[in-house]
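Example 3.2
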Amino acid sequence: MALPDIAALTFDVFGTVVDWRGSLIREGQSLERTVGLKADWSAFADSWRGLYKPMMLEVREGRLPWTRLDDLHRMALDRLLPEFGLESLTEAQRQDLNLAWHRLDPWPDSVVGLTRLKRRFMLATLSNGNIRLMVDMAKRAGLPWDAILGAEVARAYKPAPKTYLTAADLLCLAPDQCMMVAAHYADLIAAQECGFRTCYVWRRAEFGPRPKQDLPDQHGLDLVVEDFQDLADKLGC
């Protein structure tokens, strides 16, 4: 598909660029080896991620003031620890476990695919993750971003239009010069409503054994790709 006016690719990160579920399971297993507390780490990862949207909704609907995602993750973590028999973790251990989100592993194609795409396009995060989280993750994983944009910069969580429009504005681009890349259909629809071009990435293993089912047969998106290598191929990089 010819997309000659695209100048920037903006990326959802959790699930699209990095494997949050597998990484959180890995972190839990490491904690079990060092501390000796056993838990169903798959269920723990799913439950922690399951509080992601409800916690952000508290901010979007004004029940909480603007709060960084790191702090929302910590609030969710403290809620979950007793449920999984982990309430004996010390404060230092809780802080380190909360930083697991800074240590998420990239999908195998992410770094090489992004490096190819960077030759032709500006690459920016457009994530609900806060800036320090995104920077730490990028440095650890070697993610070659040109800019860290998203919720903390806009002071609004996706799918608020302000989040997408602020990113385009800060890149000095019209929304239709930006392509939102995400593994989540709702994120792409919100971006599309702001004028962005859109690309869905099939991260089929994002939820482990649960299949990805959020992309309708009739979707109206610009591109659907298997991974970032496929995206680079389709965009001629």
